[in-house]
Each structure stands twice: as structure tokens, then as C-alpha cells.
Amino acid sequence: GAGFSLAISGDLVLASDKAKFTMAYTGIGASPDGSSTHFLPRLVGLRRAQELMFTNRVLSADEALEWGMLTKVVSADELLTEAQALARKMADGPSLAHGEIKSLLLSSSSNTLETQLELESRGIAKCVSSEQGKEGLKAFKEKRKPDFNRG
């Protein structure tokens, strides 16, 4: 239950091909916590969230991937290597842009199109005027990979 909630709250979620996912709360007579009632219906839809929470159905990693709860399923012996590679890619990337993306995506379901477009305009202006944005644009012009962790 709590591990499931933690997993679905992630931005990028890797799982072993041996992983199983179940809410388990009603099995002990409890209601869900750990943000699962916020994230799960947004990821899988209300009906699937209800099924998982009411019945404690167990999903395989492949089912969880198919339902949109995971980013990628890898073999158990590759999980640590894959997670470290993904962490390195994120750490080497444009952290300001990543933060803007997360903010924009999380606000999109409650905003009008006009509001979302305004927030996107502000976000991109903020990013391209930052040191990371300047480095990204310079690297693009110079046809090289940007180094967002400079300076």
C-alpha cells in the first residue's frame, strides 16, 4: 500500500519485472493514504483506481506499465544500473526546465487553455533567460551537447 503510493507519486518510475503492486488498505480495514487517492485516479482513471482500492487487486509490473503507472520495466538484475543511469541523466539535465515542466503538468488539469498558455510563456521566458537556458541555446548554435552544470 504505502510503497505503491510512493511509487505512483514519482515523476519517472522504474520497476523490476518481478515487482507486484497492490493497494492492500482494505485488507486491513483501512482507507488509503500516502497521496494515492490524489495520484492514482489521475494516472489510471477513476474506475481502475476504485477497482484497485476496493479489491486489493495485485498488478504485475507489466500491467502497471500498461496502465500508465510506471515509466519502464526492466529485469531485476538491471534495475539498479537503469535507475543510476536515469538519475545521472536527470542530474545532468536542465534542473530549472525540469521544475517548470513538473509545475506546468501538475497545474494543467485545473487551468483553462488560456491560463496554461500564459504559464507556459512565463516558464519558457524564465528558462531561456537563466544560465542553463543560455548554455542550452549556445550549445544548440554550436552543435554540441550542453553542460547544464557549468559554473
- Biggest pleated sheet: 2 strands, parallel
CATH class call of the largest domain: Alpha Beta
Give the end-to-end Cα distance, rounded to a whole number of Å.
42 Å
Supply the helix-strand structural class.
mainly alpha
Mean pLDDT: 94
H/E topology pattern: HEEHHEHEHHHH
| Major β-sheet strand ordering | 1-4
Q: Which runs of at least 5 residues are low in confidence (pLDDT < 50)? A: none
Count of helical stretches: 8
Spatial extent as radius of gyration: 19 Å
Shape-level CATH architecture of the largest domain: Alpha-Beta Complex
Residues in β-strands, percent: 5-15%
CATH topology label of the largest domain: 2-enoyl-CoA Hydratase, Chain A, domain 1
Approximate helicity band: 55-70%
For the record, the count of structural domains works out to: 2
The 3D shape can be described as: flat
The CATH superfamily of the largest domain bears the name 2-enoyl-CoA Hydratase, Chain A, domain 1
Give the oligomeric state of the chains in this entry, treating copies of one chain as homo and distinct chains as hetero.
Answer: single chain
Please report the total strand number as a whole number: 4
Q: Could you characterize the architecture of this molecule?
A:
With 151 residues, the protein is mainly alpha-helical. The chain has two domains: 2-88, 2-enoyl-CoA Hydratase, Chain A, domain 1 (Alpha-Beta Complex), CATH 3.90.226; 93-141, Lyase 2-enoyl-coa Hydratase, Chain  A, domain 2. Helix content is 58%, strand content 7%. It has eight helices and four strands; from the N terminus they run αββααβαβαααα. It has a two-stranded parallel sheet with strand order 1-4. Helix 2 (36-44) crosses helix 3. The mean pLDDT is 94.
